[in-house]
From TrEMBL:
Pathway: Carbohydrate biosynthesis. Keywords: Carbohydrate metabolism, Hydrolase, Magnesium, Metal-binding. This is Fructose-1,6-bisphosphatase. It comes from Debaryomyces fabryi. PROSITE patterns: FBPASE. Its EC number is 3.1.3.11. Belongs to the FBPase class 1 family. GO terms for cellular component: cytosol. Residues 210-340 form the Fructose-1-6-bisphosphatase class 1 C-terminal domain. InterPro entries: FBPase_C_dom, FBPase_class-1, FBPase_N, FBPtase, Fructose_bisphosphatase_AS. Homotetramer. It comes from the Eukaryota. GO terms for biological process: fructose 1,6-bisphosphate metabolic process; fructose 6-phosphate metabolic process; fructose metabolic process; gluconeogenesis; sucrose biosynthetic process. SUPFAM superfamilies: Carbohydrate phosphatase.
Length: 341
């Protein structure tokens, strides 16, 4: 009987054994940590609710007047879009109600938030990255990194001012034609797509790996006048014909999540260097650089700063500290390293 059912579903091209994010999380827990408390699994489920809620608001943003600026600025001086404020509130409420999060760092909040209760995790997030592009319909996203609290901690800044190597999970959700979630818990990278009819994230890209090399670079060349000479020379050389007679292709959207999503799927290198105007770079370490670096490394790529140092080995001194970053296919990052010698 079961064989007959399977053959019918196959003939109709209907997958009746889909792996949802919830199922995936529970299966991974059983496989990798059968004696775990399940707190991280519950936290990841709370996160997916936030992603669904944000995706819902982005889809209808123009219809309900959620585009445009809010008239305020965030913790680092960026003008806030209305969706920045909404996304931040969604994230705060989702993490608070999860009862598993003690500390939350958000790009939109000047100070960290410490929740009541016995949560054992700290979450760092940019609730809506790339929001300056939202009015033009460009894909934006949510970036997140998760730490387990230090032993005997009751929730403090020390729980997040740590190296990226101490994160227990990281990822992003990109809101475009579909909502795509990329997730790592330190056991590789898996991609999920939101099925809006089922209301579930479905595993669509298991065990994702980035190509070792790819002749694509992604960088805002409008800032090149202010770059270090090593960066200028590296990009200039990519524009010259390579061994195959073709130069590298330039692909730059201006939304970090969208640019990283393309890079992790197709390969190449993404960069946002520090320069003479922004000596410490523009991207924030805790909730932009660290999560993307962990994802990239878990997919087989690499992530470094302008000095060639591994991003995940940086020890931030403040929750909104910044860094220059180069990440992508390992072969492409290794090539950039030769320009620093």
């Amino acid at each position: 009987m079961s064989t007959q059912h399977n053959s019918v579903s196959e003939q109709m091209n209907v997958d009746t054994d889909i792996i949802t994010l919830t199922r995936f999380i529970l299966q991974e827990q059983q496989k990798e940590a059968p004696n775990a408390t399940g707190e991280l699994s519950l936290l990841l489920n709370s996160l997916q609710f936030a992603f669904k809620f944000i995706a819902h608001n982005i889809r209808r943003a123009e219809l309900v007047n959620l585009i445009g600026i809010s008239g305020t600025a965030n913790s680092t001086g960026d003008v806030q879009k209305k969706l920045d404020v909404i996304g931040d509130e969604i994230f705060i409420n989702a993490m608070k109600s999860s009862n598993n999060v003690k500390v939350l760092v958000s790009e939109e909040q000047e100070d960290l938030i410490v929740f009541e209760g016995g949560g054992r995790y700290a979450v760092c997030t940019d609730p809506i990255d790339g929001s300056s592009n939202i009015d033009a319909g460009v894909s934006v996203g949510t970036i997140f990194g998760i730490y387990r609290l230090k032993e005997d901690s009751h929730g403090s800044i020390k729980d997040v001012l740590r190296k990226g190597t101490e994160m227990v999970a990281a990822g992003y959700t990109m809101y475009g034609a579909s909502a795509h979630l990329m997730l790592t818990t330190g056991q590789g990278v898996n991609g999920f797509t939101l099925d809006t009819q089922l209301g579930e994230f479905i595993l669509t890209q298991p065990h994702l790996t980035i190509p070792k090399t790819r002749a694509i670079y992604s960088v805002n060349e409008g800032n090149s006048h202010y770059w270090a000479e090593s960066a200028k020379q590296y990009i200039a050389d990519l524009k010259k014909p390579q061994e195959d007679g073709k130069p590298y292709s330039a692909r730059y959207i201006g939304s970090m999540v969208a640019d990283i999503h393309r890079t992790i799927l197709y390969g190449g290198i993404f960069a946002y260097p520090a320069d003479s105007k922004l000596k410490n770079g523009k991207l924030r370490i805790l909730y932009e650089c660290f999560p993307m670096a962990m994802l990239m490394e878990q997919a087989g790529g690499a992530a470094i700063n302008d000095k060639g140092e591994r991003i995940l080995d940086i020890l931030p001194k403040g929750i909104h500290d910044k860094s220059g970053i180069w990440l992508g296919s390992k072969g492409e990052v290794d090539r950039y390293l030769t320009y620093l010698k």
